[in-house]
Write a structure and sequence with these properties.
Elements (H helix, E strand, L loop, with lengths): L4 E7 L4 E4 L5 E14 L5 E11 H10 L5 E14 L5 E14 L2 E3 L5 E5 L4 E2 L30
Parallel strand pairs: 4-6
Antiparallel strand pairs: 1-3, 1-5, 2-3, 3-4, 5-6, 6-9, 7-8
Length: about 150
């Protein structure tokens, strides 16, 4: 069985960061994801997907992402239920975000776009992220010499 979800969408509201009694960070947010079809007026139809992330991923989302920012989320669908305040059973379906990539460029102090992505992809297994630039060859000063013999085809 496979339970894998990949979403690209925009935040509909500010992320909500909380901490468990054990000190684990947890953030909830909602992504607006456009469908490929349109309505009768030609407008794209959107789904609003509830997402949750834990630990360092949660803190990074809360610190670097705002309403309207675009995110790529890789995770899995989870379901849970609990008893509501009125005594009725409440069922929740959400995406557990295991990896998140921020797709909005970060602005520097002068409010201009910098060359770095706002934050690197974050894995929930607490691997150390590495900053990426939008052009991996931007710091390359000499030309790359490639002959036909170097090509695999």
């Amino acid at each position: 069985m496979i339970n894998r979800v990949v979403l690209v969408g925009r935040l509909t509201r500010e992320p909500e960061l909380r901490y468990t009694p054990n000190g684990n960070a947890v953030v909830t947010f909602t992504l607006a994801v456009n469908r490929t079809r349109t309505d009768k007026d030609g407008n794209r139809v959107a789904d609003f997907i509830n997402c949750i992330a834990w630990r360092k991923t949660a803190e990074n989302i809360a610190n670097y992402v705002k309403k309207g920012h675009q995110l790529a989320v890789d995770g899995q669908i989870t379901t849970r239920n609990y008893e509501g305040k009125d005594g009725k059973r409440v069922y929740v379906t959400e995406v557990l975000a295991e990896s998140v990539e921020f797709l909005e460029p970060r602005k520097d102090a002068r409010n201009t776009v910098s060359n770095e992505i706002s934050a690197p992809p974050v894995k929930s297994n607490n691997s150390k992220p590495v900053n990426q630039t939008s052009d991996p060859f931007a710091r390359e000063t000499k030309p790359i010499d490639i002959s036909d013999d170097d090509l695999p085809f």
